[in-house]
Amino acid sequence: MQFEPYPDIVWQPTEELLANSQIQKFINAAGVKDYDELLSKSDNDPEWFWNAAIKFLDIKFYQDYDKVVDLSGGIEWSRWCVGGKTNVALNCLDKHKGTDVWDKTFIHHETEAGYKSSLTYAELDAKVSQLTEGLRSLGLKKGDAVGLYMPMIPEVAIAFLAIIKMGGVVIPLFSGFGPEPIIVRLNDGEAKAVITVDGTTRRSNVVNLKSTIDTARKSIPSLKHVVVYQHVGMESCTEEGDVDWLALTKNMPTISDTEVMDAEDPMMLVYTSGTTGMPKGTVQTHCGFMVKAMFDLQVMSELTEADRLLWMSDMGWVVGPLEIMGVSFVGATLIMGEGAPNYPEPGRIWRLVEEYKVSWLGFAPTIARIFMSQPEESISQYDFSSLKIVLTTGEPWNPDAWLWFFDKICNKRVPIMNLTGGTEIGCGILGCTIARPLKPCCFNTQMPAMGADIIDEQGLSIEDGKVGELVLRHASIGLTRGLWNNPERYLDSYWRTIPGLWVHGDWAVKDAHGMWYVLGRSDDTLKISGKRTGPAEIEGPLLATGKIVEAAVIGVPDEIGGSAVVCVCVPKEGFVEDELQQELIDAVVNEMGKSYKPKQVVFVEDLPKTRTMKIMRRVVKALLVGAEPGDLSSMVNPESIDYIKQKKLK
User: What are the φ/ψ torsions at residue 356 (nearest 5 degrees)?
Assistant: First the structure.
């Protein structure tokens, strides 16, 4: 597999920016010379690094830990902050009492229809305490699992923090789920309760979430309580076990004790879909998720108390919990927009950036490619001068989209901090730091203390410029503590491919500048005439034509080459099918060579995506070849399946 990175560095940090940065403050506190020395020392001594990170982040403990890490059970079963007692709520709410943060705005929220609301940290704490006591009044206690099935509204932050404050285990659920994926997840986690809303609006359509829960609950024996927040005014509390949020909380005290938890107690089960079978229940602990995620956000990605963060997401993806926890941990302000980034007005997300003076923006490359297809004036009318950091994740960039975003949104001033990792990691494996320059699409660093490496099929490190499998050589504080009730699947999924290494399932490469690139999932790899190729390599030339919005390249069986290239594309308006098909075929051949000539170019209206906006290539392939598409519970746009089913491979 070959990869040609963009040749030029396009962004450099200024001396002033670096001097005042979080990463420089950490370098100084850690007593190392520069970022390169920090990275080297962290990989040689991860225990030293994580202890330094905990101290720098000022993680609060009820009882300090005796040992940073215990590896006596093997690298696969590392235990962290051994003997320590803490709670995420202690670090995201309680610590702010009596500080300047307390009267500051925690959240500005805006519905799809434009209704606005806000909460200060003091108001948030009071509402969290009332819900915490309300949940306790239902008999819920430390260790009980509680599902969270809500849209992105202030109450989802209140509920998330209340479950944690109570000592419960949050099971975040994608607000677009139907009954079946809810049944699977809440049964696996043995949830005692679920917190939901009557309904929400999506592109002006009212969606009844409570009725979905009512259907699901019949198949969840452990579920005793359904707490319902009246969000859109639908009649909803009609079933046995229903509890109205306001009735539950209105007479509860506004001060509540935070449960003292062991550092390694679970605080969240986040389910991630495999290509087949049951979704995998990753286990995040109070110390693990908090330390790893907060280091990656606060230090590596420069999130500070002064920031206003906007990251349009959902609780069903790890980004939802990340943004609530990250903002409240540092004492920043969260800008939350319920609904879509491009509805009701096409540039809604840009208007939110301008109106709320967003300084820290989370974004997905797929969304950037969609906005690229819109008229330039839909972008140029907005003011992006408040932006300081843009963090992107979810899908590999292509250079044209990255450079467009860097020019039009970042004004060639704001760094695009690319991040890749996942639910199982607790945040990032590869990322960016403003201590280093940037090239389009790159990750300019591995995250410290994880032993990230790129290997060949024998498990040996490979030279720069060659594509291999992304792995971790060290245990990391944020790694999932197994898979819920399934230790064998955990070991099979991550540790047994090459014993002693965490195999993440991504193809990656490093260039001569030391920049890292992820080329897609290794299980999406095509083998064309004996050559292994990631789909992103072929999708790049397609997108570079400027004639399509999105592309998914798959390999289908071929008698001659073993596998043939099929390009599934979402074209821009006004195309002539035969002409565009030939132009796209020529683009691939000119860039990749004749052996990669697409067997077919298929045009569709949309491509299936996960809630993280990753294109589901396995689903595209399955539908086109007539195979079973597998688990579709994480799909946000099921109507896309119908578009693809209408197409036949020649």
Answer: -100, 5
Quote the pTM value. Answer: 0.87
Per residue in 75-87, pLDDT (tens digit) is 999 999 999 999 9
- 288 or 317, higher pLDDT: 288
Give the residue from 595, 532, 590, 600 showing the smallest Cα distance to 569: 600
Reduce the DSSP state of residue 186 to 3 states and report it. helix
Q: Which residues contact 460 (CB under 8 A, 6 or more apart)?
A: none
In-domain check, residue 510? no
Number of domains in the chain: 3
* From 224-238, 421-435, 476-490, 588-602, the region with the lowest mean pLDDT: 588-602
* Residue 275: band (very low, low, confident or very high) from pLDDT cuts 50, 70, 90: very low
Same domain, 174 and 313: no
Same domain, 89 and 171: no
Choose one of 402, 436, 451: the last residue of a domain. 451
What single DSSP character describes residue 24?
H
Spatial neighbors of 368 by CB under 8 A, at least 6 apart, are: 392, 397, 401, 402, 404, 405
Average pLDDT for 147-156 = 98
Q: Where in the sequence is the domain holding 311, given as residue range(s)?
A: 15-98+264-451
Query: In whole angstroms, what is the distance from residue 88 CA to residue 261 CA?
Result: 9
Q: Which amino acid is at 163?
A: I
Rounded Cα distance between 195 and 147, Å, is 6
pLDDT of residue 176: 85
Phi, psi of 504 (to 5 degrees): -85, -20
- CA–CA dist 383, 164 (Å, integer): 38
Phi and psi for 451 in degrees, rounded to 5? 65, 35
CATH number at residue 150: 3.40.50.980
| Residue 399, helix vs strand vs coil | helix
Same domain, 178 and 38: no
Tell me if 502 is assigned to some domain.
no
Residues 546, 404 share a domain:
no
Tokens of 390: 């843009």
Whether residue 293 sits in one domain with residue 430: yes
Structure tokens at 282: 């990753």
How much is the average pLDDT of 265-282?
Answer: 82
